Give the backbone structure.
Amino acid sequence: MSSKAVTRADAGLASTLRVAVLRLRRRLVNEHAPDNDLSIGSMAVLGALAKGGEATIGELAAHERVQPPSMTRIVGCLADGGYVERRASDTDRRQVIVAITEKGRATLEADKRRREEWLARRLAALTPQERAILRAAAPVLEKLATSE
């Protein structure tokens, strides 16, 4: 098989996968808890803090691949809503340390539960073979999402 055929096949897969993943993302974004008006970016910050513990604005910006001023705005909104707490670093008073609050954790968990319930209902409608394919594909999708 020529490398050109593989490239064409990979390009076709990339196009199909891109469309499917974007549609699924859109559906999952729309399945937020009704009392949660936080953006998907704000929810991602809460998720990063819940998983990784407290972090600086710079660390959060790098994790979410946004500029520090954008992260400062997101964190400001989250702090105003009581979802996170900010404090000065013990070692460098110029740095701001951000930690998730109980309200932030509860909001994140409720939102995650709602989205996972929606997805579980969709998965239940698939055949066992289709679910097995997705089970095998999930780690590969994670690898794609986290690779540079």
